[in-house]
């Protein structure tokens, strides 16, 4: 059995912020480098091939580690020093970027080289992200989770704003290696801040000192799967998220091609649309950081969920001359994205015990993204046959239907009122209805 987790910081003790902030800054800078690399590589593939299938495959290979290896990496994270995991993961991502730079410099770059780099970066990220998320739970007061979720959504929005134009400017002025070098510099800064300025607490586990064996890792993965499966409301939400991700992710993966083929535009317009999405995420994140969302987090989540569905449909039906309308819609989509994801992360951090979060979060992520490879395999051929607009309509309708289902399913809508595992809190069960 797991021991009680390490004591969480108190809101009145501002030392938690002084300790957490350098890690947050380092990861923010590192994410900027990663965003620039992602933008540069996606545009390179778009410009060189013009193929929906190539873009879909690029996203697919980046998804595979998350879907199939994520649960195992989470189990490992729960048994290792999380600070060390984050440092080593960032270091290996930087080494992968160095290898990609060498291929470009030697003039030997092939599409499969980019696929391999995306696969490895995603693989190392499957260790880094759960370590970061699980560490945050022990470093930040619980009552600050929602606001921090809003701040993080704002950060992702800022990255979406500045990464496309900055990436486009760098690609216009320099060779692609200049963009890749930024990633190496930012990763180095993140590693330095984390290594020398941050103390990352470890959750207490009865088996923490045992050597990691395949049998133990498999047992932890089975535990994470059982935890998610037996929590009826959570599992239903994960299945709906999987369906949404299956159709929504290909739509946004194909956005550069949609701009090129449907709107007849180029790199600058792709950057404009992605920046508009980022502005919306910033506004939504700031709003969430100040407001905190409704008391019932699921109500906030579903407002964003349904809003994204309607807006995705609008993008899909826009005519070829509607680029500037699409810019505004992308901004609103970003706002709704922040409203959805900020409270969702906070809800999970509040409900899952810290000493279990590595294995449970990665299992949950694998379940939620498990159908995405199928979507990617379908996206290329169908987009080539039906046009990229069709994917936005399909994704939007799917979001609207699943959002309504989540609202009417009591097990899903009352997740706020449930104890870890799915049982209603005693006061709520006695009242017979969810607390508002």
Number of separate strands: 0
Report the span from N to C terminus.
Answer: 34 Å
Give me the number of helical elements. Answer: 17
Rounded to an integer in angstroms, the radius of gyration calculated over CA atoms is 21 Å
Going by helix content, strand content and strand pairing, the class is: mainly alpha
Largest sheet: none
The CATH homologous superfamily is named MFS general substrate transporter like domains
- Which architecture per CATH? Up-down Bundle
**CATH domain fold name:** Growth Hormone, Chain: A
CATH C-level label? Mainly Alpha
Uncertain runs: 1-5, 427-436
Q: How would you sum up the global shape?
A: globular
Percent in helix: over 70%
Strand-residue fraction? under 5%
Verbal overview:
With 436 residues, the protein is mainly alpha-helical. The chain has a single domain (15-196, 213-419), classed as Growth Hormone, Chain: A (Up-down Bundle). It contains 17 helices and no strands. It has helices spanning 15-49, 52-77, 82-105, 111-139, 145-173, 176-197, 214-230, 232-253, 255-261, 267-291, 297-317, 323-351, 357-369, 372-386, 389-408, 410-413, 426-431. Helix 3 runs antiparallel to helix 4, helix 3 runs antiparallel to helix 6 (176-197) and helix 11 runs antiparallel to helix 15. The longest helix has 35 residues, at 15-49. It is globular.
